[in-house]
Amino acid sequence: MTVWYVLSAFALILVATGLLYWVLVNGMYREDVSDLGDILENATLLLRASNGYSAASPALQPARITRHRSDIYVRVLEADGRTVIETPGLASQLLAPSKAQLAAVRSRQGESRQVLSRRGEPFLTLIAPIGGLRAGAPRQYMEVAMDRAHDEILLARYRERLWRILGVSLVLCSVVGYLIARGGMHPIEGISRTAERIRATTLHERISTGGLPEELRGLAETFNSMLDRLEQSFRHISQFSDDVAHELRTPINNLRGEIEVALGKARSAEEYREVLGSCFEECTRISRLIRTLLFLARADTAADALQREPIDLGEELAKVGAFYEAAAGEGDIQLRVAGASGLRAELDRTLLQQAIGNLVSNALAHTPAGGSVEVAASTRGQDVVITVADTGCGIAQEHLSRVFERFYRIEQSRTGSQQNAGLGLAVVKSIVSRHGGRVEIESQVGAGTRVSLVLPPSAAARGQLTKS
Ligand SMILES: Nc1ncnc2c1ncn2[C@@H]1O[C@H](COP(=O)(O)OP(=O)(O)OP(=O)(O)O)[C@@H](O)[C@H]1O
Ligand SMILES: [Mg+2]
Predict the structure, then answer these.
(1) Which residues are near ligand 1 (CB < 6 Å)?
(2) How many domains does the chain have?
(3) 455 lies in a domain?
(4) Listing from the earlier edge strand, what are the strands of the sheet with 438-444?
């Protein structure tokens, strides 16, 4: 960062200085040319006034215009290049222009050019046609020359100063660039120090956004909100492991207790059979629980892909209805399947059956004798909606938002309702969200509960839906 800053700042200064130098050189040159023009005009007038060719004419004396100004020389030439008259000593310094050079002068204002004297000094000359000095004489040319050695010295001094200034600016740019880069990096170092400190045990730490510049505040806030999400997920996972341990402890303790009692003394074959039967039941429950947990964990990491296939929802709901018919009859509950004929969707058959099954078994479990449970399918826009509604006990408002959490049961005692792990609705939610859909629940205490699965009918439609 420092190097880039120094390079760009120095390049800017270099360009600006170069430009200024060019303007100065150009300005001096143009001024000299314009001075020569004036001098040429004056000299013409003076020579004409002194009636021509007098070498004593003031126009021909080497002149120093100001104290700092270089020497000025004048020369009058015929069109064929012969010198008519000139400032004494000029011939030893400057070669006279050739006939071709004179012929090339077109403009009345004259033409300027830079030449070197016989001794190598820089001269600026201006050659202009002046007409004959005496009336009727043929066309002549006047050349005025200026020794620019003084200008060159000035420019050389100026250049030397420029190099010095550039050297100092390079040093200054480096120092300032380093300071700016360090100032800019300081808050980033703070952020990375905080990030380095954060462990699973210090997930509550946040980057303080107080003294941060505007550009970095956004980054810090994004980082902090990522930490919020991580902390929340982490808390969920810890809570989940805690719950899993609790859930498994109870049935395993039961198993252990039963076996311990059975081993306490010699028992009859019938008694052993009874204990083994109860142990088997407990083992079945544990293995079901473990299977469900594994299912949820896999769904979280999306390890198993969905096996979508075109499904006739009418057929599928009828199968579920037939499966639960006996259980409903036992509880004297009327189980109805409605309105799904002809509805088709691309869903995972096994998962769909599991989700509807969980809902129906919940509905049957919470509906008293004489009540009814209805399973129905319909469409809402592009979506397919599968609804399970009962006339059961209903769910109080304060539980409604939490029933989809893992291990959440309204009858809290874990020892009491051993059959229920509190995972049924969590599994339903996971299945539906893997299909790209959502679950809706409405319930009124004493009146009943209605759970709706809103599912996009196919993977393609899901793409469209998420886009819109
Ligand atoms: N149709 C319903 N009517 C009344 N309460 C319900 C209904 N469905 C679910 N609940 C309540 O929501 C809680 C969570 O249901 P969920 O299906 O997740 O767990 P569960 O039925 O207790 O256990 P699992 O389904 O794992 O055997 C249940 O404890 C129950 O109290
Ligand atoms: Mg359930």
Answers:
(1) 358, 362-363, 366, 390, 392-395, 403, 408-411, 420-426, 449
(2) 3
(3) yes
(4) 334-338, 372-380, 383-390, 448-455, 438-444
